[in-house]
Amino acid sequence: MLRTASKRLLGLLASPDAQSRPVQLLLPRLYHENVVDHYNNPRNVGSFDKNDSNVGTGLVGAPACGDVMKLQIKIDDESGKIVDARFKTFGCGSAIASSSVATEWVKGKSMDEVLSIKNTEIAKHLALPPVKLHCSMLAEDAIKAAVKDIEAKRAKSNGSCSN
Questions:
Q1: Is 61 helix (H, G, I), strand (E, B) or coil?
Q2: Which of the following is catalytic: 73, 82, 135, 145?
Q3: Residue 65 annotated among the catalytic residues of the structure
Q4: Which is the most buried residue in 14, 60, 105, 136, by most CB within 10 A?
Q5: Residue 118 neighbours by CB under 8 Å, 6+ apart
Q6: Measuring CA to CA, how many Å separate 61 from each of 15, 58, 70, 112?
């Protein structure tokens, strides 16, 4: 009786070949509370002047899913530490949350220290499912690109001053 009622509820008795089909339940995809928090209350949204010599800009994207992430860091000349960070992200909630977390984590650190931030740490903090790991990879790549940008600006300004 219970088996018949369950099958009827799931629609397995609707067709003759229904017994051979696997049961597929559509369950809502639930995000971890950290993702929801950073999505609903993103930290450090915005941008700096990309021409500022103390600002590094990392612009990365994932063509497969359409996510685009711009992450900027502002460096203090004297201490060499990151004093502020901003992001703008076009993408899913996981991409926005990954960007928000990245900007929080880079503040107060040196450029060498932020290069040690790994996508796996961001993914673990946000409890991202495997299908969303590319979002944390974008955040790591954006950090690296921002550091590379500011290093290139400094090399260029040091090269032009010595001529």
A1: strand
A2: 135
A3: yes
A4: 136
A5: 140
A6: 45, 10, 9, 23
